[in-house]
Amino acid sequence: MPLLEIRNLRVEFDTAKGPFRALDGVDYTVEAGEVLAIVGESGSGKSVAMLATMGLLPDTATITADKMEFEGRDLRKLSAKERRKVIGKDISMIFQEPIASLNPCFTVGFQLSEALKVHTNLSKADRKARVLELMRAVGLPDPERRLSAFPHQMSGGQCQRVMIAMAIACAPKLLIADEPTTALDVTIQKQILDLLVKLQQDSGMGLIMITHDMGVVAETADRVIVQYKGRKMEEADVLSLFEAPKSNYTKALLSALPENATGDRLPTVSDFAGAGGF
Fold first, then answer.
1. How many domains is the chain built from?
2. What is the per-residue pLDDT across 98-108, written as a single tens digit (0 to 9) for each?
3. What is the pLDDT of residues 215-233, one digit of tens each?
4. Half-sphere exposure of 95 (CA within 13 A, CB side)
5. What is the pLDDT of residues 59-99, one digit of tens each?
6. Is residue 14 part of a domain?
7. Is 5 left (phi over 0), alpha (psi -120 to 50) or beta?
8. For the domain that residue 156 is a member of, what is the CATH number?
9. Residue 68 lies in a domain
10. SS3 state at 230
11. In Å, what is the CA distance from 124 to each residue of 90, 92, 117, 129?
């Protein structure tokens, strides 16, 4: 049984101009211990799919699916109370902008402890010990002093590490990382990716990596789903995808990488699309 299995997922938003379909019948499966990368340009529905899975889309969204199961449990049938027991504990998510995701009014120590307070029965002293353990695990220097720091007193990379610590606090079985290295410099990007992969390998959890960076995919993923305008264009293991892509859109993405440039002008995705797109 897959850790997560979603079939024929559709998401529509009510807008001033009428319904907008952000996802059009996509499927996802993730096994325990597997790294699944979901790639595609901005607007392809990568984040929407995961937010739908987490139950975090606004009321303006209509979500339908033939199947949406986590460890065999139907996520569509969970009550709000039951969902809160799963989300943040068994399924966690690292959001795109760490500074925006952290509450500026509370210290990082308080925010890390809060996740443990909600989902565990640890005492206050044990929660503090666990928070320090998590901060060390994600490579935050001088964790005792960082307990009383506010998000604005930390760098983007440090805030991202706090978000990762918060996401893994309750040892989730599935971790969703939504563009986890956005807006970070190259050195910090490498550190964050290495950290996520190490945490995934050490714990055996499933990891979904949402990205538009094919370099990240090549380094971290076991399997890849390529999306375009809310539809799945291709799914393959990472080696097959890079060596023999089947979809024209996937070929376009790979051809647009700087290392694949063959002339004075770098190809764009639109160079591969017909008048009606892919």
1. 1
2. 788 899 999 99
3. 889 888 999 999 999 999 9
4. 13
5. 899 999 999 999 999 999 988 888 888 988 999 999 888 78
6. yes
7. beta
8. 3.40.50.300
9. yes
10. coil
11. 22, 22, 8, 9
Domain that holds residue 79: 4-268
Strands (E), the chain: 4-15, 18-30, 35-39, 61-64, 67-70, 73-74, 91-94, 174-178, 206-211, 223-228, 231-237
Bridge partners, 92 (sequence order): 175
Residue 92, domain member (yes or no): yes
Neighbours of 31 (CB within 10 A): 15
| Dist CA 154 CA 140 (whole Å) | 10
Pairing of strands 206-211, 35-39: parallel
Q: Which residues pair with 260 in a beta bridge?
A: none
Q: CA-CA distance, 135 to 112, in Å (whole number)? A: 9
Question: Tokens 């986590």, residue?
Answer: 70
> What are the backbone angles phi and psi of residue 246, rounded to the nearest 5°?
-100, -35
Nearest to 25 by CA among 66, 81, 78: 66
Using DSSP, state whether 69 is helix, strand or coil: strand
pTM: 0.90
Written as six digits, the tokens of 215 are 């370099």
